[in-house]
């Protein structure tokens, strides 16, 4: 194949970097919204389609009519056994799924390496604990090579703790509903739809009721990039620094110019193809990363409560100390680890306390790290500073923004499991009144886990299920987006000059956490080095505990309307 | 030249032709594999063995034992690698012989370094495994370690000059890198234990107390050389790396003067300069860049060895574009980089890239003088020892230094389309990375002497070491110094 002739180069300057004037009916709606306020309950179904191409395509044709599109042209209701109800559906596919749907194999081969290889084979990049000695050097050529013998991280195998195996998954159905009862009804209908078409639901993951907090109790989803050409909230867009949050459409969608001023490579049919000459299968599509993150909420607040007691009253700057009250001290230290207070205010704008009220939308993101090169307000290694270093990548500020924009992702995750009032939890722990873990949890569990209109009973708050985040993010290049943020920012033990300290919140655990201070820094260590759940093989027993454990995940492609149609007709 | 720091940080590249004998080459492969498995699995570490991450022998299922070559036993060495350079991409009718290449980043003049290696290898000390003979045995006319001066002569005969060499901590000997790391570790532990009390003291007194503690530890170490309680330091650890002095400034002045002269010369010979640039531009329009249809990805055998410690390595081999002209341009560009790396980029960054420990460009000259110039294949070999992932490192090239990078590699075949030597090229991120990956070759053995530290960590340790060695710091210096801890 003469590749230069079959896939002629496009002049990037003829391709827009904005969605202004774009055909939004092609793009799945999830790119623009997470439906938090309208549809508080979501569930994600992981589907194995029928081996029979015709049956798989027939299923896809049904799903096609249910997908919500960015221009609101999709259906506003989804079918259930007894009538349609307001809800939303989105579709994502693996390369395995596209192969089984009969997409041209050469076209699938032109999808990015990491999508074909799957999250399991990227374990070393992502910091997942996998014994890949036998499979890492395996030659990956055919699609079957990619699909077989995927290594499985240890933590994903542990099904009792919620581990899931998505290595043989073909498709992901994302469902969004108003109430948990309605969610159940549309989920049942989708399950039937899959079964009727000879497919199978491998596993499903359901969220808790949506709220603006993640399970540890911190405000979440505050710093999202804005796609060029899409208007955000008016008062937020008028902030002088808002432009720095605007990112070229090509960072989130294939077929547009990105922050390198190039058009990312996209899987295409060759020009000489008989039925689809030159068709760009990727255009208006994006890549979705799903990752189930179990969060050990009790361990988190127990750790910071104990550290609060230890460090209360210690000087940290001229005229300032860690608060003397142990409750406030625990919050102070946890805010340093996170980079934001539980109410969402940045430690950059509120260095000493949480500032009372949560700041308004135009203020809460209006800060840069320029005035804090040593991390005295917001530690260099804090979670939020790692996840988006803003102007702090060294060198000229504008240069840093330019580079950071090449690694932004759109987050669409949802919390799952029990949710707590973090402050009640912390108070109960500090009271140290001999309460068991279950009693502490029951004391602080958030009530009303179902809508009042729902008939379903409230789940038992002492129920032993874990909680965490069903992390989802979207980007046009998983290597530049999720993998880069995970490997080079979050999990990097040498991030911006820190020494052997990966992210203390979401990292692998086992290392200390430095909080820069005057005249000398604090360096947090695990107050419970002999806890029964401590990894016996960890290099440093005084290293902070592992607070987040990945329980599974996968890489998916979110197709455009034309591509779904192409998959249906073949 | 008056400047003792120039003696540290040297680049030795030994490139020797392999015998045309499959058995010998296969034997070499096995030798290198054993060393590699040992280093990757860290089989000498008991903890790794317990955790089961050591590499097992395919047949015996026992941890691979490397009694051949243990790089950490080399004297004064920062990083090293062995690479078998084959010629897979070369044209069928114009292949070049296979080479074994040893890249070593060490301190002091090469001959002295080689002599120290030879002495240590032959010392017969218990546990020393530096069997150069089993590694180089498959090379043409290799004389053997025991042949005295002849061994050193042979090595030096096969040494290839680095056209450009960069280090993120140039002039700091390996012994001082290690000492700084140990000193920082001792101070770190002391601070952890006494933070509550020290935080209430004036900065000056904190510094004085840390200084006294360190001195005491060293004293105890000397007095009780076998007491494990005082391990972690060495007797000369109070001595930090020396700072650049007058000699360095003189050298810098001389280099800048030379560069100024070159610029004046280029202006004086304006017609020649313009003609050369016009010819370059003409050649660029005739170049055949490689277009990549697939998105970038790594070859499995390259990925398999990556992302195991803080650093990664890159060995990159590419043919220069044929003809005299590109060859000359290439030499000029590398000469400029080499000079700047000696006097300008000496603060831990190269053109904005702060993640390189050691890097060098070497030209493997095609000595077949009987061939016409367009048939001769000079090759550019690039070695880099860098922090973090391949993607982030190559990304830094694109983000920060695409001009410099393009100037270097625009003279090599297949490089993405360039304009005026430094423009475009690496700006095309995906095409550039694909080009870089397809010309990357596997490094059979690679060893890092600072496996836990980034360049920034090393330089921070060195600065801490220098600060603790001084009994007086100004208030500003004190504030900065304490923040480094």
Describe this structure in words.
Chain A is built from 19 helices and 16 strands. Chain A has 570 residues and is an alpha+beta fold. In chain A, α10 links the parallel β6 (226-227) and β7. In chain A, α2 (53-64) runs antiparallel to α19 (561-569), α11 crosses α16 (422-431) and α16 packs antiparallel against α17 (437-444). The longest helix of chain A is centred in the N-terminal third of the chain and has 17 residues, at 180-196. The model of chain A is unreliable at 450-463 (pLDDT under 50). Chain B has 485 residues and is α+β, with helices and mostly antiparallel strands. Chain B has 16 helices and 10 strands. Chain B has helices spanning 22-41, 46-51, 110-121, 132-136, 149-157, 174-198, 203-223, 246-268, 270-286, 300-303, 324-343, 390-400, 402-409, 429-438, 455-468, 475-484, and strands spanning 10-17, 77-85, 99-106, 162-167, 311-319, 356-364, 379-387, 418-419, 423-424, 445-448. In chain B, the strands form 3 sheets. Chain B has a 4-stranded antiparallel sheet with strand order 1-3-2-10. In chain B, strands 4-6-7-5 form a 4-stranded antiparallel sheet. Chain B has a two-stranded antiparallel ribbon with strand order 8-9. The longest helix of chain B has 25 residues, at 174-198. Chain B starts with 9 loop residues before the first strand and ends with a helix. Chains A and B meet through α1, α15 and α18 of A and α2, α6, α10, α12 and α15 of B.
């Amino acid at each position: 194949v003469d590749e230069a002739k079959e896939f002629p180069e496009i002049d990037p300057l003829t391709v827009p970097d904005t969605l202004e004037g774009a055909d939004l009916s092609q793009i799945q709606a999830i790119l623009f919204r997470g439906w938090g306020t309208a549809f508080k309950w979501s569930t994600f179904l992981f589907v194995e389609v029928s081996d029979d191409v015709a049956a798989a395509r027939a299923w896809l044709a049904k799903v096609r009519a249910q997908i919500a599109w960015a221009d609101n042209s999709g259906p506003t209701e989804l079918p259930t056994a007894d009538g349609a109800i307001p809800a939303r559906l989105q579709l994502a596919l693996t390369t395995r799924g596209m192969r089984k749907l009969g997409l041209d194999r050469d076209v699938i081969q032109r999808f990015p390496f990491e999508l074909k290889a799957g999250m399991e084979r990227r374990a070393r990049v992502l910091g997942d604990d996998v014994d890949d000695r036998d499979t890492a050097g395996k030659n990956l050529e055919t699609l079957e090579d990619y699909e077989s013998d995927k290594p499985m991280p240890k933590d994903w195998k542990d099904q009792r703790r919620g581990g899931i195996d998505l290595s043989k998954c073909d498709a992901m159905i994302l469902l969004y509903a108003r109430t948990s009862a309605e969610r159940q009804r549309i989920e049942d209908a989708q399950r039937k739809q899959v079964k009727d078409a000879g497919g199978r639901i491998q596993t499903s993951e359901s969220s808790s009721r949506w709220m603006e907090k993640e399970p540890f109790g911190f405000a979440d989803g505050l710093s999202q990039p804005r796609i060029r050409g899409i208007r955000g909230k008016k008062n937020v867009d008028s902030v002088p620094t808002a432009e720095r949050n605007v990112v070229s459409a090509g960072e989130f969608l294939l077929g547009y110019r990105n922050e390198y001023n190039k058009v990312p490579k996209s899987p295409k049919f060759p020009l000489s193809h008989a039925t689809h000459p030159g068709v760009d299968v990727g255009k208006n599509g994006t890549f979705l990363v799903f990752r189930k993150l179990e969060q050990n909420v009790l361990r988190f607040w127990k750790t910071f409560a104990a550290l609060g007691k230890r460090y209360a009253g210690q000087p940290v700057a001229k005229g300032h100390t860690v608060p003397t009250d142990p409750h406030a001290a625990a919050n102070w230290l946890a805010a340093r680890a996170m980079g934001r207070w539980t109410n969402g205010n940045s430690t950059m704008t509120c260095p000493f306390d949480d500032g009372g009220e949560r700041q308004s939308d135009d203020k809460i993101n209006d800060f840069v790290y320029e005035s804090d090169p040593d991390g005295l307000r917001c530690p260099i290694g804090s979670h939020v500073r790692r996840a988006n270093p803003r102007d702090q990548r060294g060198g000229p500020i504008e240069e840093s923004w330019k580079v950071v924009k090449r690694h932004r992702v759109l987050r669409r995750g949802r919390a799952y499991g029990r949710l707590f009032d973090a402050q009640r939890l912390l108070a109960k722990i500090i009271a140290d009144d001999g309460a068991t873990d279950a009693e502490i949890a029951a004391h602080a569990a958030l009530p009303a886990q179902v809508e009042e209109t729902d008939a379903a009973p409230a789940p038992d708050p002492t129920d032993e299920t874990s909680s965490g985040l069903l992390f989802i993010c979207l980007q046009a290049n998983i290597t530049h987006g999720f993998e880069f943020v995970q490997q080079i920012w979050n999990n990097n033990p040498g991030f911006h000059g820190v020494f052997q300290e990966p992210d203390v919140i979401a990292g692998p655990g086992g290392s200390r956490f430095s909080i820069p201070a005057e005249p000398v820094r604090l360096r947090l260590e695990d107050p419970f080095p002999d806890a029964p759940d401590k990894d016996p093989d960890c290099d440093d027993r005084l290293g902070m505990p592992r607070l987040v454990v990945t329980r599974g995940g996968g890489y998916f492609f979110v197709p455009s309307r034309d591509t779904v149609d192409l998959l249906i007709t073949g | 030249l008056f400047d003792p720091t120039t003696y540290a940080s040297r680049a030795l590249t030994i490139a020797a032709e392999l015998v045309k004998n499959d058995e010998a080459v296969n034997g070499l492969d096995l030798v290198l594999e054993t060393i590699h498995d040992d280093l990757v699995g860290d089989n000498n570490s008991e903890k790794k063995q317990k955790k089961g991450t050591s590499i097992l022998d395919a047949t015996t299922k026992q941890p691979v034992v490397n009694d051949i070559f243990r790089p950490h036993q080399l004297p004064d060495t920062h990083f090293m690698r062995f690479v078998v350079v084959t010629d897979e991409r070369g044209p069928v009718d114009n292949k070049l012989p296979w080479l074994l290449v040893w890249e070593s980043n060490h301190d002091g003049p090469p001959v002295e370094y080689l002599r120290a290696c030879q002495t240590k290898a032959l010392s017969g000390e218990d546990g020393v495994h530096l069997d150069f003979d089993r590694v180089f045995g498959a090379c043409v006319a290799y004389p053997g370690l025991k042949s005295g001066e002849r061994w050193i002569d042979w090595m030096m005969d096969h040494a290839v000059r680095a056209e450009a060499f960069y280090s993120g901590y140039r002039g700091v000997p390996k012994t001082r890198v290690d000492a700084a790391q140990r000193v920082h570790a001792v101070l770190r532990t002391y601070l952890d234990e006494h933070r509550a009390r020290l935080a209430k003291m004036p900065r000056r007194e904190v510094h004085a107390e840390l200084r006294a503690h360190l001195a005491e530890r060293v004293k105890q170490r000397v007095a009780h050389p076998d007491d494990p309680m005082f391990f972690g330091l060495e007797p000369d650890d109070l001595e930090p790396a020396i700072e650049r002095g007058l000699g360095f400034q003189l050298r810098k002045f001389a280099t800048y003067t030379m560069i100024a002269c070159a610029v004046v010369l280029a202006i004086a010979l304006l017609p020649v300069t313009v003609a050369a640039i016009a010819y370059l531009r003409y050649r660029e329009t005739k170049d055949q860049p490689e277009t990549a249809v697939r998105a970038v990805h790594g070859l499995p055998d390259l990925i398999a060895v990556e992302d195991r410690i803080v650093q990664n390595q890159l060995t990159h081999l590419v043919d220069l574009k044929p003809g005299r002209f590109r060859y000359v341009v290439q030499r000029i560009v590398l000469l400029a980089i080499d000079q700047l790396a000696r006097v300008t980029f000496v603060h831990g960054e190269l053109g904005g890239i702060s993640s390189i420990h050691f890097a060098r460009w070497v030209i493997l000259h095609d000595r077949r003088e009987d061939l016409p110039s367009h048939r001769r294949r000079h090759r550019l070999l690039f070695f880099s020892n860098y922090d973090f992932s391949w993607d982030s490192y190559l990304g830094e090239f694109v983000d920060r230094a695409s001009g410099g990078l393009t100037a270097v590699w625009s003279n090599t075949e297949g490089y993405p389309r360039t304009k005026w030597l430094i423009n475009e090229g690496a700006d095309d991120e995906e095409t550039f990375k694909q080009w870089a990956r397809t010309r990357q070759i596997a490094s059979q053995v690679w060893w890092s002497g600072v496996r836990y530290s980034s360049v920034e960590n090393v330089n921070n340790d060195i600065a801490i070491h220098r600060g603790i060695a001084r009994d007086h710091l100004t208030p500003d210096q004190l504030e900065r110094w304490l923040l480094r801890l």
